[in-house]
Amino acid sequence: MAGYLARRFGQIVVTLLVFVTLAFFLIQAQPGSYTSFYALNPEIEPEVKAQLEASFGLDQPLWRQFLSHLQNYATLNFGVSFGHYPRPVIDVILERLPRTAVLFLTATVVSFYAGFLLGKTIAWRRGGVMEYTATVSGVLLFTMFTPWFGLMMIWLFAFQLGWFPLGKFLDPSLWRGSPVDANMVFTSMIVTAMAWGLAVLVATLAARRWAPGNEGRVILAGFGLALAAGLAAWWLSGVGHLAWDILRHMALPVGTLTLISFGGTMLLTRNSMLETIREDFVTVARAKGLPERTVRDRHAARNALLPVVTSLVFSLAFAVDGSVIIESIFSWPGMGRALLDAVLKEDMPLALGAFVLLGVMTLVAHLIADVLYVYLDPRVRYQ
């Protein structure tokens, strides 16, 4: 495994180098430069224009610019954002990326878990009313036009019913005079969610080792204790109402993403499960007299999980790309919204930094998918 990971990491480094090189020369191939907007101003003296070009390194040969480009990206120096001047691009990315990651990670995990459970169930009980209803609903959700569906969610739950805010990240009137800023509260929320996930993982491992017959109860008890401790800590912190405000603003975009992703995951799991059920090893497991639940979960579902896991990992990799639509509809200040604003305002350092970030996330997703395949499929592990 160590040798395999070392080879894959080397391939990722080479691919990333090629990707950054192509991105650099694509920017160089476009008409104009970073100073085009200022160079067209007749009121700027030629000496000032030359100083601007020198400040961006455009007076140097192309090969020297390329080497400086590689050095800057190796040190995460993406330059200064034009639209958020004088903030560096890396600061804007570090502020916006967690918001997009939380939005898409929450929706993806919930939709994956629910879609996989329902998909394997309706495939195992094929031909009933439940399968037809779930399949039609999944097709409708999967083929739904995302902007229209998001607007309908806002119209129904925010405008008509008034259950959730109309959009954005927080309510400015509630945060006015607050002793903490939104980024600090949001970071604390992420830490709390990670602690809850760690508690579930510990409870799962403990249940498999010491309570194999009561795994569900042990996991539920561990999560309940962690949830109670986290809620008590937020209640005593004095800023729990601010965290609740962010959660209320997250509800509609997360719900929209979950419903759209749920349909695709459920249909993919159903189709993969129907193919796996016909395999010989499932027939052999049934012939051994194993319980139907064991045959379904430990034999059929585990093998049907492979294409679903691939789809899950790649959907996370393209979260920045897909978040442009959702974040624009719900005015969510994440990475997708920052990328769209950078393109519209010709903020090339921020746009190029987000573009390279998307490439890095895609390469990492490929590595994660390969590792999960080795874990899920013993044949891959043997090879």
Secondary structure: elements and pairs:
Layout: H1 2-29, H2 36-39, H3 46-55, H4 62-74, H5 89-124, H6 129-142, H7 146-160, H8 172-175, H9 182-210, H10 215-237, H11 240-277, H12 280-287, H13 292-317, H14 319-329, H15 335-344, H16 348-376, H17 378-382
How does this structure look, described?
The chain has 17 helices and no strands. It has helices spanning 2-29, 36-39, 46-55, 62-74, 89-124, 129-142, 146-160, 172-175, 182-210, 215-237, 240-277, 280-287, 292-317, 319-329, 335-344, 348-376, 378-382. The chain folds into two domains: 2-74, no CATH class; 90-179 and 239-382, MetI-like fold (Orthogonal Bundle). α5 packs across α14 (319-329), α12 packs antiparallel against α13 and α14 (319-329) crosses α15. By secondary structure, it is mainly alpha-helical.
Strand tally: 0
CATH superfamily of the largest domain: MetI-like
Determine the mean pLDDT. 79
Domain module tally: 2
Number of contiguous helices: 17
Distance between the termini: 11 Å
User: Could you list the spans in which at least 5 consecutive residues all have pLDDT below 50?
Assistant: none
- The CATH topology annotation of the largest domain reads as MetI-like fold
